[in-house]
Amino acid sequence: MPTPTTQLSVTRYLGLPDDTIDTGLAGVVDSVNVLVAGWRPLADPDELAYPTPVQQGATMLAARVWRRRNSPAGVESYGDLGPTYVQRNDPDVAMLLGLGYYTVPVVG
Question: Which residue has the higher pLDDT, 94 or 32?
């Protein structure tokens, strides 16, 4: 059964070595796959892969969730002008996954 993203896709997106093995990252990828599959199920069970925008959105979401482990209070970094906070909702991920304002309207 196809999954929206893979651990290899996320490690490459994050710029980590391909041989990175981390059970925490594996858990994040599994969780994101379950979440995205619930949001965007495959129209046909015989499809071999999710559409490219959904794969990219799932990879970006998994990377963002993975990076959040370093900012549990929502602070990404401190700079000259003070703290930089993590945005609550990522509009790029929402657009790629077709969520929120990007959801296709359905009647009935």
Answer: 32
